[in-house]
Amino acid sequence: MTIGPTFLAVIFGIVAAVLLAVFGAIVLVRLFKVIGFLISHVARFIVGMFSDTFRFVGALVLMVVLAPLVLGSVVIGRWSAAAHYGRAVKNEVKTASTCVYRVLIGHPFRLIGLSGVTEGLEHRLPQVIAEAPGPDRPSKRRVGMFNGYTIVGSLPGGGSGGRLYIAEPDELKRAAFVRQGLQEVDQVVIKSFSLTDGSSLPQIVRESRALDAAKRLGLVLEHELAEDRFFYVMRYVPGESLSTLTTRMHGLSGGHGLNDTHLRTALGYMADLLRALDTYHRGGLWHKDVKPDNIIVDGKRAHLVDFGLVTPLRSAMTLTTHGTEYFRDPELVRQALRGVKVHQIDGTKFDIYAAGAVLFSVIENSFPAHGGLSQITSRCPEAVRWIVRRAMTDYDKRYATAAEMLADLEAVLGAPKLFEVRPVDLPSVAQHGRAFEGERSAEPQVVGWAHAGSPTPPPLPQTPAAGSERPVPKRLAGRPKLKVTGWWSGQYQVEGEHDLRRPSGREFSLAGLAGPGLFAGVAVAKNNSARAAKHAANLVPSGARAPAAEQLRSARGRAAAKRRAAQQRVSSLHRSMRGRRDPVAINGGTVAGAMVGLLVFAALGAAAVMFASLRAEPRMMVTSPHGSMESWPNGATPPLPSIPTAPAGPEEFRLPGVDFKALSNRSVLVVSDLTPPIDAKVADGLRCLLGGLIDAGGHTLGDAALFLGETDDADSQIELVAELEAARGQRPIEAADVHTTVLTWLKAHEEVDAVLWVTPTVKPLEGVQYTVFAQGSVFSGSASSEVGSIIGDALVRATAPVN
Amino acid sequence: MLMQVTTGFITRLRANDEAAWFELWEIFGPVIRAQLTKWGRGRIGVETVRDLSQETLAALSTSIDRYDPARGARFSTWLLAIAKHVLGDEIDRRTALKRGGGRAATELDETWMAACDGRSVDRSFEEGVFRSKVEAAIRLCEREADFTDFSIYRMRVLDGKSGKDVAAAMGVSEPTVSRRLGRVRELLRSKLVEVMTVYSFTDEERAEAVRNGLYLNPNASPEKADESPFDEAVAEIYHRQLELRRRDEQAMRE
Q1: Chain B residue closest to A395 (CA)?
Q2: Domain holding A414: CATH number?
Q3: What is the pLDDT of residues A586-613, one digit of tens each?
Q4: Can you tell me the distance from the alpha carbon of B137 to that of B27, in angstroms, rounded to the nearest whole number?
Q5: Which of A334, A366, A424 sits opposite B171 (nearest CB)?
Q6: Do A333 and B148 touch (CB under 8 A)?
Q7: Residue-wise over B182-210: b if at least 16 C-beta within 10 A, else e?
């Protein structure tokens, strides 16, 4: 069969028609898409213009409504309400401005395809303006507010509500720093909280509470607490935050994760952070706010700053949820909600979690939004992923110390090729590797109490600067205290040595603080980083104690300065009384302000007196079980007793069926996980039991004070409880490995015969669950009535002599 | 037994157990925020979404005393109804404020409790709630499993590495990897049962796991010897939750 040319032409014609139709369809589809896009683009523009215009009008209307409210509140003296309405007006102004910007610039630019030029400008610009530092110098009335310092600049304030100034110390201050062993303090940061500047009392209290702890590490140079303000001085470290640096490094690396050079640099900064954390923890402190914004890089090294939340690891305060989301372990929030005390948990673990989160954010350039389950998708060595996971895993399983994490990180950094390091090559994995293939040993490892911020931490590593040639003296040790007895005459008196000179088991050597992490919290000038390293090494040189002659000169200098200042004040007062103008004397404006202030004050005072006389405030009277009477103003809530009050006399410590004689000479450590409010039956039962035990000649330790109200040797008691809590971690008390851990602990502490651990029952306020550990045995159960008798019986049985 | 545990959790919520509330917030916070963002698109900002999601749980705390599991409402429906109410209330309040007047809060419409009858209210929201439950189970599993075991599971299943690579990274043999994977899988199944029980009120809701390829009883799986469908389902849900959390976090940063 032959195929004719006509047939071929028809076939070709059909194929061509089909192809043409397909092509046409594709072109048409594309065309429709383009037309659709253009229509939707224009529609979006129109909708955007209209909606922003309407929004602008709405904002204007609201401003008009709110403005009289602001004025009215100011007139009638409702300052809080005025501030509230003022903020609302401010928000509306912001909304209106954004709308104007979008209508005039944003939408038209987007319409002509220039959205890239203006993208996010309305967010970025206000953000930059908001983050700008305040006035470089304090206002005229504040010049000289910090004696001995000249303000030369300011820094943007953080979330703590304080104001940050950069200042230069004068010669006297510098000499004082030298005497403290702090060389070449050129510039400092002064963090100031003042009630007149808008800081609140809780902010001041919180910051000042952390101060003592920070001072022990040499992070704070000086501080002052007055009635209306509080400030402290620390070294200044110019540089940029790790978060800014991370963004830049990712940009330079091409946006798919850090390249090898930047990765190594970033891991180096992480190592600096971990050294700093190790220093904090060994000094018994918990930083509590580790995040990229609190890590300043001065070009070579990373420094951990901001110790507004620094807390002693053995603090008896109740745990709070302060911290920063994504860098704060959710477990901390859970524990805080349970109302636990700081010493009942191991704060170092939460700093380690935050360090893991920082490492994650450096590698991923985003926050670990999924907590411990967050996934690293950027380019990253498997060993580093492992480190992040280990740091951010469950409380009981993460690194026990920052040093352990640092060792793993240094193993990665020490390798010539980062990506060739496997998790199994890390020291922490290799250490546990022996038990890895086989089953774990039956006896659980006792964790944490040897270190974990104990007040008597293990010996710190000696730095080369601290030197082996000469012993490093304790800071302030051996320094005689000079008391100036007459500022006018310059007389002084030498008192006994400083208390710290007395050797104590609780002292911690500052030698280790001279390590590279010490200045993490404070500042070193960018171009002075090498010098800073030298400072760190020489923080406490053996010659820290200044010669007596120098101290004398310094004391006389201080006295002379005070004398001069006093004379100046007197002569200035004389001049002003004679009508001579002086640059620092009181001027007319001040006098007028003072007069107005006095008038307002007098008017307010008169109003207050009238108000008080009209309204005789009834008071609420409450009679306590002891017969005493207390009263609270009406409207105020009387404080609720967290634990029911104690019975009056020792005769109340009677528990039928408990053989207290068997408990004579026994010392029982009580660990309580109960949180207020505590069931009255439980509290009474435990009080009777522990009171009876003491009457019988026994001893109670730890949380027994919660029920008996005794606080003898509170520190050591907290220490014992903290050791056990750290050893237990977050595991349930009924877990077999917890039993083994506590019994092992008990063997190591001969001064304790038994441990009584009380925990809440599933249903709150319905009895108590108890576990008694003694002589290798464990008795546990729960009691909702006759609590004292039941637990007492368990104690007697557990501590009975074994034949 | 199952209902007993469920009602136990509600009892904790009713008793204002803060840990229970935090648990609820942590697990379902992102999915509520995503839903509120979806509904309030263009009308409410990120901060308002955060506030409203907290208000949703606060409203939950006040309405929880009136909740009756016996009437057959799904947990997701419960949350959704409250979130919708809170958002509607906020929009009404804003509208009233712009008019310059006040407005009393509306009553929570509780007709959904019986009217819903287990039918889907918002499919994507319900899927989100289900994924949140699976995520909670994975988190519980991580908490209880041996760290090395879970890391192996994570590398193999969640990160999608081959068994050979995992074995090389951990310096163990492939059979060891399989054995450890099996342990975690078993624990994860038990945690899934636990979580599904606590946060599911209806039989239909409890059957959701199987519908999504998560056979909580391995013998009930059509491919009894093959665990890969289970692993794949877990990995898929995990990654979708990651994406949800990532978007949530990104919204906060913007």
Answers
A1: B143
A2: 1.10.510.10
A3: 344 434 444 554 565 566 666 655 554 4
A4: 10
A5: A424
A6: no
A7: eebbebbbebbbebbbbbbbbeebbebbe
User: Are the CB atoms for A281 and A313 separated by under 8 Å?
Assistant: yes
Q: Which H or E element spans position A121?
A: helix A121-131
Q: Are residues A195 and A246 in the same domain?
A: no
Q: How far is A422 from chain B (nearest CA, A)?
A: 5
Number of domains in chain A: 4
3-class SS letters over A610-669: HHHHHCCCCEEEEECCCCCEEEEECCCCCCCCCCCCCCCCHHHCCCCCCCHHHHCCCEEE
Higher-pLDDT residue of A740, A611: A740
- Least confident piece of the model among A79-93, A160-174, A495-509, B215-229: A495-509
CB proximity list for A698: less than 8 A, separation 6 or greater: A660, A663, A664, A665, A666, A667, A668
CB atoms inside a 10 Å sphere around CB A362: 28
Same domain, A211 and A289: no
Residue A562 inside a domain? The answer is: no
Q: In angstroms, how far is CA A75 from the centroid of its own chain?
A: 41
**Residue B100 has what pLDDT?**
58
* Residues A402, A453: Cα–Cα separation, whole Å: 11
Are A103 and A145 within one domain?
Answer: no
Q: Do A366 and B250 touch (CB under 8 A)?
A: yes
Helix, strand, or coil (residue A77): coil
Provide the residue count of chain A: 803
Q: Which of A206, A235, A264 lies at the terminal end of a domain, its last residue?
A: A235
> Where is A224: in which H helix or E strand?
strand A220-225
Q: Which of A378, A401, A430 is the last residue of a domain?
A: A430
Cβ within 8 Å of residue B144, ≥6 positions away = B187, B191
How many Å lie between the alpha carbon of A72 and the closest alpha carbon of chain B?
A: 16
Mean pLDDT, chain A, rounded, equals 71
A chain contacts of residue B250, beta-carbon cutoff 8 Å: 366
State the sign of the Cα–Cα–Cα–Cα dihedral A289, A410, A508, A347: positive
CA distance B115 to chain A (A): 33
Distance (Å, rounded) from C-alpha A184 to C-alpha A27? 75
Regarding whether A231 and A302 lie in a shared domain, the answer is no
Strand-pairing partners, residue A166, are: A153, A189
ipTM: 0.77
Best mutation target, B91, B131, B139, to test chain A (most A CBs within 10 A): B139
A423 vs B142: CB contact, 8 Å cut-off?
no
Statement to judge: residues A21 and A152 lie in one domain: no
Tokens of A219: 């992070």
Question: What CA–CA distance (Å, rounded) separates A358 from A365?
Answer: 10
B212 or A230: which leads in pLDDT: A230
Structure confidence at residue B26 as a pLDDT band (50, 70, 90):
confident
What's the CA dihedral at A376, A378, A380, A383 to 10 degrees?
10
CB A284 within 8 A of CB A314: yes
Domain containing residue A228: CATH number: 3.30.200.20
A106 and A186 share one domain: no
Burial A453-488 (b: 16+ CB within 10 A, else e): bbbebeebeebebbeeeeebbbbbbebeebeeeebe
User: Residue A579 domain-assigned?
Assistant: no
Cβ separation B172–A334 shorter than 8 A: no
Model pTM score: 0.59
Closest C-alpha to A433, from B96, B170, B124, B208: B170
Residues A777 and A668 in one domain: yes
pLDDT in the model for residue A642:
42
**A761-800 pLDDT, tens digit each:** 766 567 888 898 887 888 888 888 888 888 888 888 888 8
Collect all residues of chain A within an 8 Å Cβ-Cβ radius of residue B95: none
Between chains, do B142 and A422 touch, taking CB under 8 Å as contact? Answer: no
